[in-house]
Amino acid sequence: MSAFRKVIVAVDGSEQGLQAARVAARMADSMGAELVLLHVFALMSDDIAGALGMTTEEIEEVRDRTARKAFDAVLDAISDRPRPPEEVALVGDVAEAILDYLNDARDVLLVMGRRGQTRMGSLLLGSVSDKVLRHTRTPVTVVS
C-alpha cells in the first residue's frame, strides 16, 4: 500500500504546470495512488470581482473555462494513463486556495511547478510554490 492515497498536481496551463503533471502522473501510477488535477482561477477577493461587475455565475464560468483549458492540456500530455484523473477547479488567491484544499493532509502528495507565472509577476507577488511550502504540513514536490 502506498504512503499517499492521492497525488495532487497544481496546473495553470503553463509549461511548468505540464511538466509537474507529467511527473505527478508517473508518481501516482508508480504508487497506485489517485491523480487529482487542481486548478485555481486567480481572484484575490470578492471585492475585485464586484469592482469588475462580475456575478458569482460569471466568475464560475471563467473559472470553469480556464480550468478546462489547463485540464485538457494536461490530459493530452498524459494520455497514456490507465485511468482518468479527478479534476478540481477553485477560485481565489492561488496559494491560499491550494493550502485550504490540502488542509495539511499527510496522506496526499502535492506536486507543483516552481514557476507558473511570469518572472516579473513572481518578483512582485511572491512565488505560489514558496508560499505553499512555507505554510503546509502536506508533503510537496516542486518540479523545476
UniProtKB/TrEMBL annotation:
Gene3D superfamilies: HUPs. It comes from the Bacteria. CDD domains: USP-like. SUPFAM superfamilies: Adenine nucleotide alpha hydrolases-like (SSF52402). Residues 4-143 form the UspA domain. It holds the Pfam family Usp. Belongs to the universal stress protein A family. PANTHER family: STRESS RESPONSE PROTEIN NHAX (PTHR46268), UNIVERSAL STRESS PROTEIN UP12 (PTHR46268:SF6). This is Universal stress protein. It comes from Wenzhouxiangella limi.
